[in-house]
User: Fold Porin from Pontibacter populi.
Amino acid sequence: MRIKSFTLFLFLLALLSVTDSFAQIRPRQKPGQRATPTNPAQQNPQRTQQQQPNSSGQDTARVKKPGSILDDTTKALYGPKTTLRLYENDVLEGIYREQRIDTTIQNMQNQRYWFQDTAFYQHLGNIGTASQPLLYKLPTRIGARFGKNAFDRYAYNPDKINYYDTRSPYSHLYYVQGQRGEQVFEVIYARNITERFNFGVAYKIIATDKQFGSTSLRDDGLIDNQAVKAFTHYRSKNDKYNLFSNYTHLNHEQIETGGVKPADTDDTPDSLFTYQNELVFLEQAVTDEIRHNYHLLHMLKIVGENLKAYHRFDWRKQNTTYRDDALPEKVDSLRNFYPEEFYSSARTLDKTNYREFENEFGLSGNTSISYYKAYIKQRNSKIDYSAIQTINPDTSAIGAIVSEDRVENQVFVGGMLRFNYQDKYLLFGEGEYQLVDNYRLQAGARFKGLEFIQSRVRQSPSLLEQRLISNHFIWDRSNFKTTITDQSRASLRQQFGTRLFLKLSGAYTNISRLVVYGTDAEPIQLTGNQRLLEAQFANHLRLGSIHFENFINYTNTDEAPAVRIPEWLVNSKLYFQGYIFKNALFTQIGVEMNLPTGYKADAYMPVTQQFYLQDNFTTKTYPVFDVFLTADIKTVNVFVKIAHANYDLWEPGYYETPDYPGLRRSLTFGIKWMFFD
Assistant:
């Protein structure tokens, strides 16, 4: 489903606005009625949102009657102060820190903040497309895993869902519309059924239109993404038992073009920026991915906060389908795009289904200066591959289905130990061991703003890297060895009054036996080591109403030729923040620049949903400027921006990924409307 007009938007707005008839009025439980905080962080909970002038509620106002949200002085009783968020891992660690919902306008206009993961990503030139982290990330998951992560960014993460504690029903509508067809829509509804039982549900849509080429499939649609989450939290009357549970779903469709295609030998990358008039490699190809995740965490206090037993259960299912009903014609006995056709030269229908069950049983406990956790975990996973084989190679009639499956049963043991003092000094260590091969170790220390972390990860290749059956790729890499990654990281944070914040960090990473997708788009294991040196600088300078924010990342890959990262990545934002129109409107007005230096960016293979090495194309060092205005109007946040304002000023365009041009100039509008009744 895609939003083509404001009709659906207005309908949902009207639907949510009538929830005041079901409004729930109850007193907020006093902090002393909950479990006594044992972590120093609990005594001074840190709010993630900034204190905005229009985001206050009145807890002490008198209630006229049940269902009312106004007191006798017509002041609002309910708002951001009475709608709180809670995270399951905080409760497991004994940190009962309920945070206010985020009502700020900070970064609302930034595309990176429209999704679940706000890291920098390489993608295919538009929102919702296949992506991978632009900067290096230390692996954190060991043991069996699927290996298809191109759409992770657009799915709700079951482990990081925020649960609500509301005095009245809370809902919000979030809508973004771009000139080039970019659309993001999300609706959330949450309410307390009882004082100790909360339930919520959310629905999200991401959609966009093709920017280049035209196909006969689904008109101009490029991305159709629908995501759902339903979540609940229950705690017993005496706080001895807590239960967190959620269900998440993703249905993602991406029309595959293969990128822009040169019309003749005279074409160069700079001549392929006519967008709709450009040819594409694939005419009728599409990727479909469906995910289902059920997550449960419940815990029981045995000896207060000193000893708790917990159980975590996860069921995951991820099914991917790649279909192309019109394979490109041969040119000089070679395909324009695919390397081979093993089962049919007329059409492709590849399916890969992954299923995983995971149970974790453990003990945890905390005091005012320490926290510990010990657990045992069992993971059962299964992967199925299938491809169609036609009766004759050049016909579309299916003659057989070629398939294969693989089952993994693994056991893990792990734990964590942490000592802290006044949330300023910290020592910690954690580890996980998969019998009898993989492991993950990490230790660190923090002294006020200075932090050191040492990590080591021994990780098996993903199931996809080890084996695949498809119409265009068949490989068996069961002889691959584990990859070992060592990383040393240090960082320093310092706040200078209210005007200046600085963060400096650096890391040295050594990777042995790295597995990557080579220039033929198939997995290879490298001999020798890949060594990266990283440095980061971030600051926020405030001079009155003028704010200047910078993030600068430097990565030296001279000794890591298979890790393709821009040497420099700069993100800068200069803006005015304050009241305008005689203090009637709180706003930000500014400009933001994103600049990665040129590098040999990985290419993308839609058959496998993997980015792979290429040596024939180097992206340009090209800055992208956004001019924006955001505003806070009581319970409504809005923004208007001109994305890629410098389009076609000194360059015809730029490439996010080889053969995939970046988005042109686009006038974009967004709104977040919050309801507290």
